[in-house]
Amino acid sequence: MIIDSKKYGGLCSCGKEHAMATRLCVIEEGALSRFEDYMWQAGVSGKRCAVYAENTYDIPGLIHPKAEQEVVLDSKGLHADEVSTAKLKELLEPDIEVLIAVGGGTVHDIVRFCAGELKVPFISVPTAASCDGFCSNVAAMTWYGYKKTVACGAPTLVVADVSVIAKAPLYLTATGVGDMLGKFTALADWKMANAVTGEHLCPVIYDIMNTALLKVWDNCLQLANGDMEAYEAMTYGLLMSGLAMQMIGSSRPASGGEHHISHFIEVEPAALGVRSDALHGEKVAVGTVIAAREYHRMAETEDISDKVVEYAPLSEDKLMEVFGEKLFEACRDENAKDCLAAVTPEKLKAAWPAMRAIIKEIPTGEEIFARLEKLGAKRTLADIGIPEEKLPFIIENSPTIRNRLTLMRMRRMIKV
Ligand SMILES: [Zn+2]
Ligand SMILES: [Zn+2]
């Protein structure tokens, strides 16, 4: 399967111009044996350096893309941080014109960041269907202990060899499933925000994502049997998710209330009092089960006319209490122009029937939980090291991590 950006860029029926920086995205068995051909098709030339982590360099069946230089980073303690990026820049020969990332999310973020700094194109060769960040145009970095996302270039070309990806450990693929199933609540949040405030929703991108998601939903249990079609659907879904974000210029199609739960846990708010070492997709999986359960619970109420309250801004004292001094300012700034302020009780009441219909389309928390369980994926707060009694606290406060209109955020005004 080949995704050609020419098909997706340009003026859309939604009235917006979409841009896709990734020229070509290949998802095929044996794609790496045709790597040179795809480089030529994508118009990429120049002296190359391929970057690996130690534990991906010798993956069985991995054909190494031809490169003038190969760098193998020590897997131990490898993070997308100031140490690894400095190391890579130090090792690079001075006249490198193309960087190739071969591996998972961390290697991709390190290479993406360095390619951005050196202003050279970067090529993505994912070796596991573990997250949707491969096609992204931001790098998730940890800078001197602080997490931050840095805008850098998206890959010019992605060569995803499904025969390599299918051999990755199942737990890694299961984290990708978690990231992908999160699109159920993310897409629902997008559609509900559109129903309440008229926020722009591109039906073309929505449909592409929804179709990719349903294909993963239908096939994900076959991943444990090594089914190639299931791996192809997974890889396509994750890559398309990154491309959708490029097209719309934000993470809206891929991230809603469930991702905010993941991010909330990740920043370690003072009042949470615990930290989780779980992978991104594992936290998103848990967030998705929580959000799906909560959304379906809310949708049980047919008439909310006497259960809606006026908008009230977030209290700074509350933010300080939840996040602590270290995170307070960033959180206050994030919420300074609270998107919920555009919502009125009248708008909520009018949109509620449509919102309930949107929620009905999401599989229930129990259905999502069952699939994750069959795949052996993490699915409860306890699984990711968070005490279950933190659930109400997480549901209430996680939306404040990101100023985006989700049902989780609108919950502040809907007392059901
Ligand atoms: Zn994600
Ligand atoms: Zn559009």
Entry summary:
This protein is of the alpha/beta class. It has helices spanning 5-8, 35-41, 54-57, 82-91, 105-118, 162-165, 170-197, 203-219, 228-248, 257-267, 280-299, 316-323, 325-334, 345-360, 365-374, 391-397, 407-410; strands at 2-4, 10-11, 17-18, 24-28, 48-53, 69-73, 98-103, 122-126, 138-143, 146-151, 157-161. The chain has 2 domains: 2-168, Rossmann fold (3-Layer(aba) Sandwich); 171-200 and 246-410, Dehydroquinate synthase-like, alpha domain (Up-down Bundle), CATH 1.20.1090.
Explain this structure.
- 47% of the residues lie in helices and 12% in strands.
- Helix 7 crosses helix 9.
- The mean pLDDT is 94.
- The protein folds into two domains: 2-168, Rossmann fold, CATH 3.40.50; 171-200 and 246-410, Dehydroquinate synthase-like, alpha domain.
- The N and C termini lie far apart (45 Å).
- The protein has a seven-stranded mixed sheet, sandwiched between helices. A two-stranded antiparallel sheet has the order 2-3.
- It has 416 residues and is of the alpha/beta class.
- The chain has 17 helices and eleven strands.
- It binds zinc ion (2 copies).
